Amino acid sequence: MTRKSKQPGGHNPLTYAETKRLKSSGYGTQSTRLTTVSQLPFGHCALNLSPIDPTGDAAVATPSGHIYSREAIVQYLLTKNGELKKRRGEYERLRLEVENRRVEWEEGERRRTQDRFVRKDQGAMSSALVLRNDDNDTTTSAGAGGAGRSAAVATARTSGNTGTTGQNSLKQVSYWLATSQPQHARGGRGAPSSGDFDYESEIGALPPAPPERPPSPMSGEPLKLKQLIPLHLVREGMEGGRNGDGGGTGRILCAVSHKTITTQPTIVIKNTGQVMLKSVYEELAKPEMRCPVTAKKFREKDVLELIKGKSGFAASGKVVAKKYNPTLT
């Protein structure tokens, strides 16, 4: 027996009657046993959950082995393709907006760089013109006033050059100063140098790109219309190709042995569409690699194992459904 602190309810364990009463009101994890009625029988469509008409090519299978009605799966693919087309259009519109903003930002950066270069170049030219004019004024002027002015200009020029040289030398030697540290460009590798626009973060903020093909309803794998495999189903009362009088149960039969298919492993030969028990296939069809019904040869890759039906027995698969609800523990 577990410790008292580990029992349901902590230090105040619940009695069986209390637990049962709480369970009926939705307290704690709810679990129930699924009966055969709750399971999908073999030969029913996995989309509309109804029996498939065995006449014609109404039954198809996907590469995952699930069985569908052709009408239901085609309608599903058409609907999903329309939804994916709208999602792709919306995604391309958002992606184009980001690209346009990036182009505008790069154009603005180019103009700003050009303006800075022009201002710097014009500033150097104006400084050269001013110095040239000062030299001309110094040589043409006479008297102590002209000599004093030239001396002041030379002193200012020397002091300015000395200050700039001192700052450059300080940056080279004192690399730990804040003014000597390199500037980090936000945005990561391949992003613009400035932090005003981060291309990678803008693309990462977009919703994920929609897939090219709609997913399969059960397996989630990309599915195409040409991947559907036609099935030739034989129902009870249709043995030998004749129609029944409606007195049968409508269960699917093996095309070779005419045994009822319920939860047994079942395969289909793709190039013939014949559905048979796996045990019958191993015994009669696999040794000669020839279909027992049509006498048509097939290869190993033409054999697809179908999803078998389930029942209320534990051996057929998952038969217990659980729903988690919080408790006091």
Describe this structure in words.
There is one protein chain. The chain has helices at 16-24, 70-140, 144-173, 199-204, 278-285; strands at residues 30-33, 59-61, 67-69, 229-230, 234-235, 252-253, 266-269, 275-277, 303-306, 320-323. With 329 residues, the chain is an alpha+beta fold. Helix 2 (70-140) runs antiparallel to helix 3. The longest helix is centred in the first third of the chain and has 71 residues, at 70-140. The chain is elongated and about 120 Å long.
What features would you highlight for this structure?
329 residues; 38% helix; 5 helices; alpha+beta; single chain; three-stranded antiparallel sheet
Secondary-structure map with pairings?
Layout: H1 16-24, E1 30-33, E2 59-61, E3 67-69, H2 70-140, H3 144-173, H4 199-204, E4 229-230, E5 234-235, E6 252-253, E7 266-269, E8 275-277, H5 278-285, E9 303-306, E10 320-323
Antiparallel strand pairs: 1-10, 2-3, 2-4, 5-6, 7-8, 7-9
Q: Give average pLDDT, whole number.
A: 77
Q: Total helix count?
A: 5
- Fraction of residues in H or I helices: 25-40%
**Shape from CA axes?**
elongated
Helix and strand run: HEEEHHHEEEEEHEE
Uncertain segments are 185-194, 241-248
The number of E-state strands comes to 10
Strand order of the largest sheet: 3-2-4
Radius of gyration over C-alpha positions, nearest whole angstrom:
41 Å
Q: For the record, give the distance between the C-alpha atoms at the N and C termini, rounded to a whole number.
A: 17 Å
Name the structural class: alpha+beta
Oligomer kind: single chain
Beta-strand percent range: 5-15%
